[in-house]
Amino acid sequence: MWILVLVVVLTGCSRGTVAPSTGPVGHLPAERSTAQPVAMPAHKLTAGEVLFLRHCAGCHGAGARGDGPVGTVMGLRPRNLREAGLFPEERDTAWIVRILHGKAMPVSMQSSSTIATDVEVDALAHHLRRLPTIPWNDIDHGEEVYDSLCLSCHGVYGHGDGPIANTLPSPPRNLMAPSYQQQISDEVLFQRISEGHGAMPGTGDVLSVDDRQAVVRFIRLLTPGYETYDRYCVGCHGKRGRPVSLEILELLGQADTWQPPPVLDAEFFRARTDEQLRTGIRRMVTLNRAPMPHFAGDLTADQVRQVLSYLRTLPPES
């Protein structure tokens, strides 16, 4: 994923007024569907495919053809990774270094295509304020379970656009939809994950209670602001709001010229009003900066090998 740094250089001392999310305000009835669960398609995502979809498809596209939404927004045409002979096994070490440590690339942001509306700015600001309050250990566990059992149908961000979604008898639920998030309670969500709902089979016989509760917590993180942050900001600010290390900047040759972004902790937000935060976000999308595509903080060398192994299974294209 080509990463856009979110540099919020703001001033001010008053406390913001956006409260952390307190969960759903409504409650959907816990009705049982009369539809019988159906057998899931035979295709099972490999570890490499899941890693590719979560970390690479934003730019390179779900089919690895270089047509992902992030590249389009930034006016780039990422490489088609299905070129014949692109990933010979003897070049694994070189590709691992490139993927883990990246390469700075100048881009011209098409700001009208990114975070343009007040709704989008507010959604990102709301997610930013949540960062210091999120139970990250639970979220990381929930994401791992979600990726193994849910991503193939519901997609990386829960839109219902997973790689096998179009093979199902009915479209998967859009888990990110604000109306759905507001209406369904944690209890009903847990019940549906456990027992199934409609064509979705239950997982109570394969997941522990802790696993299912962790998935509920991860689904609660799926918001428009989370998606924007994950696509454009996380590579430099980090998933938890802590920027990349100086070692990464040195590897990229940017340690002397790049101003590290701030730590997005509780102290940072106490010193900034909501309007100052929104102003910083709007300023960010007008800057022409060099994104730093790297995954050293997110992927291991073995995981990169899994991604390369997956890419080698795709039919080559000229």
The portion of residues assigned to helices is 40-55%
Average pLDDT reading: 78
Strand order of the largest sheet: 1-2
Q: From N to C, what is the helix and strand string?
A: HHHHHHHHHEEHHHHHHH
What is the count of DSSP helices, taking H or I runs of 4+ residues?
Answer: 16
CATH topology: Cytochrome Bc1 Complex, Chain D, domain 2
Terminal residue distance: 23 Å
Low-confidence stretches: 1-42
Report the β-strand fraction as a percent range: under 5%
Largest sheet: 2 strands, antiparallel
Query: If classified by CATH, what would the architecture be?
Result: Orthogonal Bundle
Shape summary: globular
Present the secondary structure layout.
Blueprint (H helix, E strand, L loop, with lengths): L46 H9 L1 H4 L8 H5 L18 H10 L16 H13 L5 H14 L1 H4 L23 H6 L2 H10 E2 L2 E2 L7 H13 L2 H9 L1 H4 L8 H6 L14 H5 L3 H11 L16 H13 L5
Antiparallel strand pairs: 1-2
Helix pairs in contact: 1-16, 4-16, 5-11, 5-15, 6-10, 9-10
